[in-house]
Design a protein that fits this description.
The protein has 519 residues and is an all-alpha fold. It contains 18 helices and two strands.
Amino acid sequence: MKSSEDSAHCDTDYEVGQDNVSIIGLDVHNPVFVIAASTIILFVVFSLMFQAQAAEVFTGARGWITTRLDWLFMISANIFVLLCGFLIVSRFGRIRIGGADAKTHYSYPSWFAMMFAAGVGIGLMFYGVLEPMTHSLNPPLGIAPGDSEAAAGLGVAATVFHWGLHAWAIYAVVGLALAIFHYNKGLPLTMRSAFYPLLGERVWGWPGHVIDILAVFATLFGLATSLGLGAQQTAAGLNYLFGLPNDTNMQIIVILGITAIALVSVVRGMDKGVKVLSEINMAMAVGLMIFVIIVGPSWSIISNIFTSTADYLFYLPALSNWVGREDTAFFHDWTTFYWAWWVAWSPFVGMFIARVSHGRTIREFIIASLLVPTSVGIIWMSTFGGAAVDQYMHEGYTGVADAVRSSQIELALFKFLEELPFSGISSALALVLVIVFFVTSMDSGSLVIDTITAGGKIDAPVAQRIFWCTFEGLVAIALMLGGGLAALQAASLATGLPFVLVLLAMCVSLMRGLRTELN
């Protein structure tokens, strides 16, 4: 059985086993859907019923994972980067996803837009100003805060490090594995398929069920972290622009409202929903960035793009090292959290970019999914974060720095725009952009989880997409009430921990599968 029209034209080395069943009109992959859905429902119920206890558990889990297993996340992220580099320059790079005669489905602009919108989501809006300023005020690697020039350069470079090659290498490995085993081997578009060379027919049994269930948990909680951040920033923007209350109740109302909007997009499907929203995202993001470049410190921003690239490459070895680190606050609270967050997001982003990358060569796929987003990240962070640091260090404006020091981190973007001309218009545009990113993440995330729980089917009933989209919002609400930002981060860490081991095994399986493509 082939799981898509395209894979039906590909030769396959493997046999496909399916055990989908129909439950009250739902086309689900038993028992993945049942176990994942029931566990998520129980999590939401108990987190809402026992909020204080949930907050204590989340906070403890976050501290234990970041301090005890930092080395595991760092080593794994480095392995993913090295593997991607090898695939670009090796003979495997010429293999085409879908077979030698496969055709692409999307133009380069649409392809880039969907990958970028799915992979970064709300995070760039939340951290684009906040993180460079934070690292400039408290620089890692032993740089003294009084050395303002070095601190400013490292502040942006450390931010790019978290949003650059390592992050996208995790996505690229997962996306490539799923694309190859789906389009070239004719297997369902689900995580278990990438392990066929290692597990054989056991991927259709409990080993495969466990992999898919872990993928659902990682995706759902990784998304919940992003949605929680987006809700905080949206509520802060509404307060800043319109004076509405900025509290937990407002954040919950925001999540409910955005979930309702996302449901409309979910029903419209990939081309009419996610694709359109992704292109709107890119157009608005580029427009906001060009606005900042024009009205902000233009020459400083442009020069920052080049210096940030140089600083990133210069500090990359030190930032990638985990031995003998003394900047433990940065290493644990930022880097370890980020790698776990990206790992948690990897089934979502990987499956999404695999789904839209039919017809691309491996070399083309990795360059596009690794180097292009990293380059865009450098430009974005240099524009927003670099300009914010410039405001503080050269113009004496302390709005962003004060927001960081007072832990009003969700206001960082709006405080930055406040110092620029037409701040009301640009802040309103930024708020809309956050909301659209919010909707895109929920939309594409529910499609991916739906695909996993439907055994790789990409045309499962709409009711299933509605179910998962709804529970994405409910999980985010449960985490917000059960500890706020600490709980959101703990959720990503807890689900990223077991899944990083899954991804390391996937690397081995991917290489075995690619060798057969060259025979």
